[in-house]
Design a protein that fits this description.
- This protein is an alpha+beta fold and 379 residues long.
- It folds into 2 domains: 4-137 and 332-377, Aminopeptidase, CATH 3.40.630.30; 140-329, Aminopeptidase.
- It is built from 13 helices and 15 strands.
- The chain has helices at 14-22, 32-39, 87-103, 118-123, 150-155, 159-170, 183-197, 204-214, 260-274, 287-295, 314-322, 341-350, 358-374, and strands at 4-8, 44-52, 55-66, 72-77, 81-82, 106-112, 130-131, 140-145, 173-177, 221-227, 230-240, 243-251, 279-281, 327-330, 335-337.
- Helix 6 (159-170) crosses helix 9 (260-274).
Length: 379
């Protein structure tokens, strides 16, 4: 049976979302639900969907944002997605993606293949996609296997981290599953975290829309940690497929000695395990720190310098995450595609010297700024 390709600009597509949830490599940032969240901050969407009979077998969702000059940039996170490995299907999707780029006036497409997309990543250079230095989504993370017993999971942690989890329990730190009514407190903690870590948070409406889109489907959980009646830290977790992703943890900066973040992460992991998920994804670590941690004894206790995952320098956050004993995962990086031959040549050969040039320099600045100021909730 032959393949059929279509383009869609509809923000809502339940069949596409169900395909992603049931397909290896499917990710929440490819869902139409995520497209509706990104609409709050100015993104449009176009979706390439390949069907065979009544079944979706492949596709890619591209987010679009207009440039100050003609055209737009495109962002393809964790795609394209394939239900099975078929060279003809891969070729069809990449040909169709090129048609999409040209039809919608995309001057630059940043594409990051899915977690299981190493074979797609290897194919992209043949289609004039070039690896670029931007990190739109994490390219290195750590996954904790939740299938062992709770005691076995605790046993594989660094001893200091395991001690701090138990210390938080003795100090009366509690964590519960939050509701929509807790989003105000979550955003208060978000602002406190953004001030300490110097990033610009998305507007409150962004998180309200995330809840409205994902929570009714079971694709968003909010966990809230309290000391007494004071909310100290919180985490938005995304359960999708067989993985629960730590989307964004926030912290007030208070009660450091009571270890609220250790309690928060551990409670989220326990929920994920109890609900049958295979992995907990810490959503990004620093590769150099991970390599150092694997080779140097002085990082063996796995704790951040100041003791909190939501605070401290990136290498300290990585040490904290590694302390849980998960497996380091190297994920496909970002590839850039510029359809215009001259602009493609300029980008590849002389882009570092053209920071002042309107198209190339402006585009690079736009993407870099987009990463650095909104990294905490980009994905």
């Amino acid at each position: 049976m032959s393949y059929v390709v279509k383009f869609s600009e509809e923000f809502e597509d339940q069949a596409w979302d169900e395909f992603l949830a049931s397909t290896p490599g499917g990710h929440h940032v490819q869902t139409s639900l995520w497209a509706r969240v990104k609409r709050v901050v100015g993104w449009r969407v176009v979706r390439l969907v390949v069907t065979q009979g009544d079944d979706i077998v492949a596709g890619a969702q591209v987010l679009l944002r207009g440039l100050s000059v003609a055209g737009s940039i495109g962002y393809l996170p964790k795609g394209p997605i394939f239900s099975h490995n078929d060279p003809e299907l891969v070729n069809l999707v990449l040909v169709s993606l090129d048609k999409l780029v040209r039809k919608y006036g995309i001057r630059f497409l940043a594409a990051q293949p899915p977690n299981n997309g190493d074979s797609v990543a290897a194919e992209l250079p043949r289609w004039r996609y070039q690896p670029i230095g931007l990190e739109m989504l994490p390219t290195v993370t750590t996954w904790l296997d939740l299938t062992p017993t709770t005691d076995q999971i605790l046993a594989q942690m660094k001893s200091k981290l395991r001690y701090n989890i138990r210390l938080s329990q003795r100090r009366g730190v509690t964590t519960h599953e939050g509701t929509e009514a807790d989003l105000d407190e979550y955003y208060r903690l978000m602002k406190a975290t953004s001030e300490r870590q110097h990033f610009a948070p998305f507007p409150k409406a962004y998180f309200a829309e995330m809840w409205r889109m994902f929570a009714p489907k079971g694709y968003l959980k909010l966990f809230v940690t309290e000391i007494g009646n004071q909310v100290v830290s919180a985490q938005i977790a995304i359960p999708f497929g067989d993985i629960v992703i730590n989307k964004l943890s926030v912290w007030s900066g208070e009660h450091r000695a009571d270890r609220p973040n250790e309690a928060l992460y551990w409670a989220t992991m326990q929920w994920a395990k109890a609900n049958g998920f295979h992995y907990y994804d810490f959503e990004g670590i620093d590769l150099n720190t991970a390599l150092q941690a694997a080779n140097e004894a002085n990082t063996a206790d796995g704790n951040p310098t100041e003791g909190n995952a939501a605070e401290a320098a990136p290498n300290s956050v990585t040490s904290f995450k590694l302390g849980f004993g998960g497996e380091v995962k190297l994920l496909p990086g970002v590839f850039g595609y510029i359809p215009h031959p001259m602009m493609r040549w300029m980008y590849r050969k002389v882009a570092p010297q053209l920071e002042h040039f309107t198209m190339t320099g402006g585009l690079l600045h736009y993407l870099r700024t987009f990463k650095s100021t909104q990294r905490a909730a980009l994905e």
